[in-house]
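[09:14] KT: can someone run the structure on this one? pasting the chain below
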Amino acid sequence: MNAPIPFRAHNARDAARADWIEERRREARAVVADVVHHSDHLIRLACRFLVQHGDTEQEREDARILLVVVDGWQLGRACHRPDPEVTS
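[09:31] RB: done, structure tokens below
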């Protein structure tokens, strides 16, 4: 039987993962900062990432709110029907 290791030393893999998360966090913030020039899909992806990996509670909450807003845009488009009374 193996003896349990009392602690896990940080290794190169953990450092690489932290670097990867930080880079994705920067990219997600850039997408959220420039919502007008990005697709709804990319905005949703960035928001989901920030909800999980945002630095502060405020950043995570703002991402949740933006995600609700973007989902509302999609619902608004899907429910829109042209008025049958209006003729061209």
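[09:33] KT: thanks! The mean pLDDT is 84.
[09:34] RB: yep, looked fine to me
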